[in-house]
Design a protein that fits this description.
Layout lengths: L1 H26 L7 E8 L6 E7 L5 E5 L9 E2 L2 H4 E6 L3 E6 L9 E6 L8 E8 L3 E9 L5 H22 L3 H8 L7 E5 L11 E10 L4 E9 L8 E8 L4 E2 L1 E6 L9 E8 L9 E8 L5 E8 L1
Parallel strand pairs: 1-9, 2-8, 3-9
Antiparallel strand pairs: 3-6, 4-7, 5-6, 7-8, 10-11, 11-12, 12-16, 13-14, 13-17, 15-16, 17-18
Length: about 300
Amino acid sequence: MEVLQHVPYFSCRLSLLTLLLAGVAAAQPAPPTRQLRQRALSLQTTSPVEASIHVAKGVLTTLTFDSQLLPKSVMVQGRDTHFERVVVEERTVTLKPKVDLAADERLLLTVRFADGAAPQEAIFILIPAGEQVDAAVEVLRRARNAEALQLELTQVQAQLAALQGRCGDGGPTGLILSGLLDSDVITSVFKAAVPPGNASGLKVERGVGYRTRAWTVVTVRVRNLVGQRVWSPGVARLSTARGQSIQVKSLRTDKPQLAPGEEGLLLVETGAPVWQAEEELLLELSDTANGRALPIRGVRL
């Protein structure tokens, strides 16, 4: 009977203790919700201290470098007291804090590079994260700074001005001023032929050759027959009938690709001719995607 009298007393104490513990748990602040972000930063050669990296307890932060590191030279301040994981590889450093940094706390991460080029090292400041945590940071060491880009832009502008001074506004007068067109230019219209049995599904309409002492250009009109796949010529090979290879300087087209039933103009440029003017040449045009080739005989330059 005495035991039965004490049961309600202990039940009340247990219930009260449960309510108190629940109230304490509810009063604890919930961990902040942070956004994981990815970003890139460029190293400067003028200052060893580069940028702040936002880190947070339990969140992995990985720095990826475009140059190889010296893993043994990587130093993380507070490594034993503040981090549960630090992984250093040839091009990456991964950190996982086990505590949140205090609001005014700053830790240094120092890395050195293996090739000895400038900058030889970089120092990053680890700071407590606010609403965002740096989950992935791409570190660009070889990126050029604004001064280098401005210098290159100035050089390109000077080259462009010199070219415009030589060529004027383009057109025939510009070609003459540039020295690319003179009185020795020879034009020849030729009847191009595709070898019998060629299954490329392409037809050559006509061809014209232009020859000077300094360069030659062959132009051909090609039709992609109806029912064929799209053709995107990207490779040109030129050779003599004797099998001598001729170096091609460029291949240009008036259309990037020919749809079924469509016709386009192709221009192939070489350097100074080393073959005889009366020689017949072989031109082969190929699609870079699928290798669909069009051999053209009877080319004259």
